[in-house]
Amino acid sequence: VTDQEISLSLQQAVERGLRYNLGLIESSQATAEVRAQRLRALSTLLPNLSVKGEQAFEDLSLKEIGLKLPAIPGVPSLPATTGPFSYQDARVSLAQSVYSQELHDRYRAQKSTEQASAFNTRDARDVVVYAVGVTYLQVVASAARVETAKAQLASARELDQQTTDQLKNEVSPEIDAIRAQVERQSAEQRLINAMNGFEKDKLALGRIIGIPIDQRFTLTDTAQYHPLADLTQQTATAEALQTRSDLRSAEANVKAAEYGVRAEKAQRFPAFSLHADYGGAGANVGSFNSVYTVAGSVSFPLYTGGRIQADVDEARASLTRRQAEYEDLKGRVAYDVRVAWLDLEASESGVTVAEKNRALAQRALAQSRDRYSSGVTNYLEVVQAQEALTAAQENYIQILYSFNASKMALARAMGVAERRFSDFFGGK
Predict the structure, then answer these.
(1) What is the pLDDT of residue 428?
(2) Which is nearest to 138 in space by CA: 408, 424, 420?
(3) pTM here?
(4) Could you read off the pLDDT of 105-133 as tens digits, one per residue?
(5) Which of 246, 329, 361, 403 has the least C-beta neighbours within 10 A?
(6) Distance CA 102, CA 262 (A)
(7) Contact 404, 228 (CB under 8 A)
(8) 40, 115, 273, 295 from 45: Cα distances, Å
(9) Residues in the chain where the model's pLDDT stays below 70
(10) Cα dihedral angle (364, 366, 367, 368), rounded to 10 degrees?
């Protein structure tokens, strides 16, 4: 926490969210774990070198292994044990899988899983951009409500003073003064509620982007109307099917599951491996003799009690599930784009209407105040005009927020919330 107040633009808030949001940190660590699993699978295909040194002290039982000599007159029989002896052995060993279809397919499966995890992290970044953007826009809308409430309170206080003066001069009835006081008190309460909502929305934004709870900050960007150009629903859907990271992740998971099925089937195939070592052995280092071993082996299962078939069935079930998830996600991508597009169209047309209604309500209030000052009408008409303006201003704030939030939702649905952020928000 610093004493200075931090100024945050929408772009800066998004950058902070991408740096400090917990969900993105967890996603990045999950990718690191999958990468480690892929490296572990790769290690089974690479040579394994090791060095071993041994100092042994032994006394072997000859009777235990059934070693004996035929009874020959004059020739003593073998002793029960060899007697104590010692030796030293030092070797460098190499183990290498020459060919194993199972290990190769398991590595390919882990590689595809790593790609899926990387796409998940990229998708998580898009989700963070969307969450930060929508929350920032909510704070901007709340700030606009606060400013509107302040303007309404100033107007209510002015009218309250005006009715009080007219009551003293016996120009206006007492009922107008009472209505003016009620309207002023209502405006004060609306301001309190607006400021409370504004502060809570700021706290929510701070939590998402990692700002300490006691840190003061202010937003520099305001809500503006920037229509999207050169974009249709068809092009948005086509781009979403190409760029949505969660869809690419599901596709990589299908490929990983396919390799998983192949790996389980490959357990039935022969596997070839090589083992070799070289070193020295003797009673001590000074009497070492060169020793070595070179061995090639081939292995394949003859009977496993149905274990391999069970592994294959399980892998096939996982593949079927992954394929179904992928097909469902393709439909959901088109659905997300369609819903976001409908919301965008509805809110875009609503912005123009709400702006005109706000201007008309402002004119109606000005005329009502003039009529009241001239004694042509009572204060009730002013109150009604003020309430109409309040509703028009709230409607404009809400519809403008909905429009910008719909653009944010469309960017998320297309999978370009981070990459094309500036295209959706007028260069900001």
Answers:
(1) 46
(2) 408
(3) 0.79
(4) 999 999 999 999 999 999 999 999 999 99
(5) 329
(6) 7
(7) no
(8) 10, 20, 10, 18
(9) 69, 171, 426-428
(10) 80
Provide the 10 A C-beta neighbour count for residue 113.
23
Structure tokens at 263: 């790996």
Let me know: does 125 contact 418? Beta carbons within 8 Å.
Answer: yes
**Interior angle at CA 319, CA 313 and CA 322, nearest 5:** 145
Contact predicate 344/404, CB 8 Å: no
Tell me the C-alpha distance between 328 and 247, whole Å. 10
Across the beta sheet with 48-58, the strand order is 48-58, 85-99, 271-282, 289-299
List of residues 6+ apart from 306 with CB closer than 8 A: none
Q: Which of 253, 250, 257 is nearest to 326 (CA)?
A: 250
Give me 152's structure tokens. 């309404």
Place of tokens 């944010």: 408
Cβ atoms within 10 Å, residue 97: 17
Three-state SS sequence of the chain:
CCCCCEEECHHHHHHHHHHHCHHHHHHHHHHHHHHHHHHHHHHCCCCEEEEEEEEEEECCECCCCCCCCCCCCCCCCCCCECCCEEEEEEEEEEEEEEECHHHHHHHHHHHHHHHHHHHHHHHHHHHHHHHHHHHHHHHHHHHHHHHHHHHHHHHHHHHHHHHHHHHHCCCCCHHHHHHHHHHHHHHHHHHHHHHHHHHHHHHHHHHHHCCCCCCCEEECCCCCCCCCCCCCHHHHHHHHHHHCHHHHHHHHHHHHHHHHHHHHHHHHCCEEEEEEEEEEEECCHHHCEEEEEEEEEEECCCCCCCHHHHHHHHHHHHHHHHHHHHHHHHHHHHHHHHHHHHHHHHHHHHHHHHHHHHHHHHHHHHHHHHHHHCCCCCHHHHHHHHHHHHHHHHHHHHHHHHHHHHHHHHHHHHCCCCCCHHHHCCCC
